[in-house]
């Protein structure tokens, strides 16, 4: 089960210009169906600059229960999804914080919460493809060759226009979960 956490973060510059939002806490919680349009807008705003892969509104709505959202004063200011790629591997997708709120630690909080969800679900490994590996490495991910993630290549990469000329870093973290693994040899 994904739980809600409330964290205090330093307000970003734009928030300091809006007294009503200043001082409001940032909460991270599971997304609800009503959050889908806000998630859609967050993702769409980062597709053009080439930071995120495009997602259809229908796809986001179908998978909205996999998302966590960060909110301030009730407004969705960030999101991230944990999507299963195989029985043992899950992927962080569509991790984004609204531009005005970046650099204040919200992305790190979201990523930590998404990974914690993977750990609770028993995932053995969580991966991501990203232009910003630093945010992931800071949380224990390692940069690996793309070919170490065949699940991702089979699922998405082969159909992607950037296949074989992709500039993104593949990152992975070992969680040690046992989801999808058979019983250990010698276990009853
Ligand atoms: C990636 C993103 C979610 C990070 O959110 P954020 O709230 O700014 O992140 P944080 O403030 O928690 O910073 C996390 C780390 O990432 C680093 N970082 C963030 N943006 C960066 C950038 N554009 N380039 C290099 N490093 C960056 C920070 O320096 C920080 O590292 P540090 O703690 O070692 O200094 C945000 O920049 C974003 O929405 N980017 C556009 C979408 C995207 O690229 N998503 C990632 C695809 S998986």
Verbal overview:
This protein has a single domain (about 5-175), classed as Aminopeptidase, CATH 3.40.630.30. It is built from 6 helices and 8 strands; from the N terminus they run E-H-E-H-H-E-E-E-H-E-H-E-H-E. An 8-stranded mixed sheet has the order 1-2-3-4-5-6-8-7, with helices on both faces. The chain is about 25% helix and about 25% strand. Bound molecules: coenzyme A. Coenzyme A binds near residues 46 and 51. Coenzyme A binds near residues 46, 51, 130, 132 and 138.
**C-alpha-based Rg, rounded:** 17 Å
Strand content: 25-35%
Instruction: Indicate the CATH class.
Output: Alpha Beta
What level of helicity do the residues show? 25-40%
Q: What is the number of helical segments per DSSP (H or I, 4+ residues)?
A: 6
Question: Would you spell out the secondary-structure blueprint of this structure?
Answer:
Layout: E1 5-7, H1 13-16, E2 26-30, H2 36-47, H3 57-62, E3 67-72, E4 75-84, E5 89-97, H4 106-121, E6 125-130, H5 133-137, E7 142-144, H6 150-155, E8 169-174
Parallel strand pairs: 5-6
Antiparallel strand pairs: 1-2, 2-3, 3-4, 4-5, 6-8, 7-8
The chain binds coenzyme A.
Question: What is this entry, summarized?
Answer:
Helix content is 26%, strand content 26%. The protein is of the alpha+beta class and 188 residues long. An 8-stranded mixed β-sheet has the order 1-2-3-4-5-6-8-7, with helices on both faces.
List keywords for this structure.
188 residues; alpha+beta; Aminopeptidase; 8-stranded mixed sheet; 6 helices; 8 strands; disordered N terminus; binds coenzyme A
